[in-house]
C-alpha cells in the first residue's frame, strides 16, 4: 500500500491538487491546516517524480514533460513562490528543489522553463523580494542563483529596478541572509561577462553610487566582501571601460588609500588590489597624479612596511615592489 | 517563546567554553539579557580568516544548520555580525560535547547504556539528514553535544554536503572535504580513496562505527597514527574494536598496563556486532541509519533503567555548576570555569 492513497496520480492531477491546496492556504481560513498537509504531500509527489526516491527512479521524460507543461499552464510556479512563506519548513525546501529541477529542463538546446519565466518575470521579482523575509530568504536565494545561470533571466534581474534592493539585502544584520544575498548579487554581476560589462557601463553612476555605500558600510563582512568584489570587477578585462572610469575619480582613490590603513588586515589587503590599479594606470588623470605626488614619500614608506609577513606570496610581493618603483618614479606632468 | 535578536548588546559573555577551528572560532557561555536564559555563543574571528575558503565555510556551516530542523540537530537561534566577528546564538548544551565528557570524566569510555542513548539520538539526526539528501561527513564525539535533559544534538555542519546538485539527485558524491585534517580519522575509506566510484551517505555510517569505538574506548580512533598509515589500514579493512574482556587479554606481557576497567567490562554482543557492521569496508554491508534504529540493541533503553544524567555522573551539566538566571551571574567569577576552559569544542 503506497503511503499516500493511489500512487499513480498523473502530473495533471497532482498539479491541480497542489494548486487548490496552495489557494486554500493563501485564503488562510479554517481549512488552512488541511491545506498545509495537502501542499506538503503534493510537493513531495512532484519532487519524487522529478528526482526519484531511494526506491524508485525519476519518472520518464514524457511524464516530466507533461508535468512541466501543467506547471506552466497552471501558473503554479508563481503561486508557489508567492506563498512560500505560508508553506511549512520542509515544503519550502521542496519548492526550491522542484523549481531548480524544472528550470534545468532541456529540449535539445532549448530551455523551456527559462523561456517560460522570461514571459513571467514576476516570478523573478517575487524571488528577489524573498530576501525581505527571514524565513524564506535562503530558499529564494538558491532559486535565484539557479536563475542567474541563464543570461536571459540574469538580464531581467539586472535591469529591473528591484536589483538595487540588493544593496540593502547584502547589508542586513543577519549574517547568513546577507551572505546569501551577496552570493546572488555577485553571481548577477559576474556570471555573464558581456552582459555585466554592458550593464555596468550603461548604469555606471547609479550602480557605483550605491556601491559606495557598501564600501562604507558599518558591517565589516559587507565592507570586506564588497571591496573584494570591486577588485575582481575592475581587474576583469571585460570591464575595461568601467575600470578606466573608476580609476579616474580622485574620490575613489582617496577611499582606497584610507582603506589601506584600516584596522582590519583583510580590508587593507583587498584595498591594495584596487589601489594598485590606480598606480598602474599609464594615463593617470591630473587629479589622481596630484594626490599620488602629494603623498609620494609617505606611500613609498607605507608600502615598504605593508604586510611584510606575506613573504611566501610571490605575486603580492612582485606587485608591491612594482608599485613602490612606480610611485618613486612619478613626476608631475610637463608644463605644470 | 523567547525570541533572540541579533543585537550584540542583548548578550553578556560570561566565560569561554572552548576554542575551535585552530583558534579561528571560540564558544562562549553567555546570558541572553532580555530573557535571562543561558545560551552558547559561537564567535568566528572573521579577520583571522584570510582566504575565501575559510569565510565560505562559516557561511556554509550556518546556512546548512538553518536548512535542517530536527530535535537532534543543534538549532541556531540567530546569527549576526559585530565588529570583526560573526556570532551564532544556540541553546546551551549543558554537558558540552561527548569529547568533553570523555576527556574530563570517562577516559576509558562511557558505559554501554549511555552509548546507546547517545547513539540513538545521533541515528535519528542522521536518518533525517540522509532522507533530505545531506551527508554529514564529520561524525565524531566532539560534534555530538549533550543537553541538560540528556538529549544529544548533532552539529559540525561545515563539513556537510548535499547530494541534490544541479537539479538532480547524485547517487554518488565525489567532492572532498575542504579542511579534512580534524576529521580524517573518522572518515570512511571510500571517501579518503577519492576514486571514480565516489561515496554516498553510507560513508557516514562508517564514521558512526568509529564514533561508537570512540565513546566506548575513550580515545580517538587511530590516535597518533600517521595519516598515510591510517589510510592503508582502513583500505585493508583494519578497524578498531570495542575494548572489553572479550577483546583484550587479561594477561599482558611486558610493561603494557591496561586499565582494570577495560578488562573487567563487557559490551553486549549486539553492540560489538553493530560496530563491526558499521565499519564494513563495503559501504553496502553497513546498516542504514534509519534501519539501524529498529535494531534490538535499542530495546534495552526502553526499559528506562537509568536516565542519561544518572549514567553520566560524576559529570554535571553546566547548570548545576552555575547560578542560573540569577543576578549572581553578573558577578560570576570567571575562574570558576577554569576547568571548562580546557575543553575544546570542535563544531
TrEMBL record, chain A:
One GO biological process term: intracellular signal transduction
Similarity comment: family membership: Belongs to the Mo25 family.
Annotated protein name in UniProt: Protein Mo25
Gene Ontology MF, one: protein serine/threonine kinase activator activity
Pfam families found in the cross-reference section: Mo25 (PF08569)
InterPro entries to which the protein is assigned, alphabetical: ARM-like (IPR011989), ARM-type_fold (IPR016024), Mo25 (IPR013878)
UniProt cross-references to Gene3D superfamilies, sorted A to Z: Leucine-rich Repeat Variant
Originating species: Ceutorhynchus assimilis
UniProtKB/TrEMBL annotation, chain B:
UniProt-listed InterPro entries: Kinase-like_dom_sf, Prot_kinase_dom, STRAD_A/B-like
Every Protein kinase domain range: 11-298
Molecular function in Gene Ontology: ATP binding; protein kinase activity; protein serine/threonine kinase activator activity
SUPFAM superfamilies per record: Protein kinase-like (PK-like)
PROSITE patterns xref list: PROTEIN_KINASE_DOM
Family designation: Belongs to the protein kinase superfamily. STE Ser/Thr protein kinase family. STE20 subfamily.
Protein name, per record: Protein kinase domain-containing protein
